[in-house]
């Protein structure tokens, strides 16, 4: 008896993975690849699109050859903010430009002065001014710098939708990509921004389909459904939206710590944008208010600094337990006024003299106090006036008991949980088209939760 599965391609900047999930969302097959980057015509590094395309086909040929699996569906999640420009035959016309590619200042100034100024435009599109990371600006640049190439473009597809096109042969757009700091979507009108029509960009964009859409495959194999693909940050939220109905914030922690609130529909303010807040659209078409903090990166830097000062290994900080007495002592000594922004608060520890602390443990507790205060300020921006009941923390900081206990203390009115789920992005991408491939009901046990009470007592549960 063959096992019914979904194949999910999870494409990050560094690692490209293929997972097969069974109907219980257990991983039954996994394949990983890394490609050497190539360069575009300016010598800037970029994704090797040819390698990526070949890898998709090779991986699928491999899993179709395996007798133990029946592929019922395929879906894709990839990093966002990058377009593939295809001609009428489906061939890419340019390299896949890197979203970190420097953007010409003169062209940027021309754009914003024509369309109402940076601040006003950013408020309409919920997109801070980010250069190439605003993927619509890549299209604007192509039109103005390479008009002959622009003329040949049949459709501009965000990377997840290009990968879906490789298998389905269909061109579509998806709101999770369009609605994430692209400069393309007017959140106030809930439609493409006026400039998209004025610049002749609209006809280069494929029709928008709902995120749970599936298509017939044109790639050889049995009869299976092909999803439209997802922006990875949107995919990671799906398991939580499927599993929990009470309003929550998901704090996704890594290099960036991003607070995602799918229950806040307030329009962004100028202050929000200045504090690194934006809105994007999740898979059910509603806005998510997101605030971000560079806390994971700061953590890496400061533990090196503390370790060097106290002559210990930075690995030691993984095992330091929470000490309430140290926290009380440090709080009693620290009389500094509150910082004016999350970023300013995050930078506070860097100005502290390490000689003021008796040990690396005490210094690290102070650092975590500073980080969690910055996180409180950042997360409150995403909460706004919404009635959030729960805060789920996934990623690296969710495993840090000092961080989690302090977070529970600064949010006493909200239930704080460390949440863990293997491969959240890939599972979210599979869950989005659950009805198209899975004969079982939605699972209720894919997220493991550990509760942290403000009293610093922890209990374990799962949902």
Main CATH class of the largest domain: Alpha Beta
Number of helices: 18
Number of strands: 23
CATH-defined architecture of the largest domain: 2-Layer Sandwich
Determine the N-to-C terminus distance. 31 Å
What is the assembly state of the chains in this entry?
Answer: single chain
Globally, the shape reads globular
Q: Biggest sheet, in brief?
A: 8 strands, mixed
Rounded to an integer, what's the Rg over CA atoms?
23 Å
Beta-strand content estimate: 15-25%
Sheet with most strands: strand arrangement: 18-19-17-16-20-21-22-23
Poorly predicted residue ranges: 456-463
Q: Provide the structure class.
A: alpha/beta
Q: Helicity range of the residues?
A: 25-40%
- The fold-level CATH name of the largest domain is Nucleotidyltransferase, domain 5
| Count of spatially separate domains | 2
Superfamily (CATH H level) name of the largest domain: ATPase, nucleotide binding domain
What is the average per-residue confidence, as pLDDT, rounded to a whole number?
91
GO molecular function: glycerol kinase activity
InterPro entries: ATPase_NBD, FGGY_C_2, FGGY_N
Family: Belongs to the FGGY kinase family.
Pfam family, one: FGGY_C_2
Task: Quickly describe the structure.
It is built from 18 helices and 23 strands. The protein has 463 residues and is α/β, with parallel strands linked by helices. The protein has an 8-stranded mixed beta sheet with strand order 18-19-17-16-20-21-22-23. Strands 1, 2, 3, 6, 13, 14 and 15 form a 7-stranded mixed beta sheet that branches.
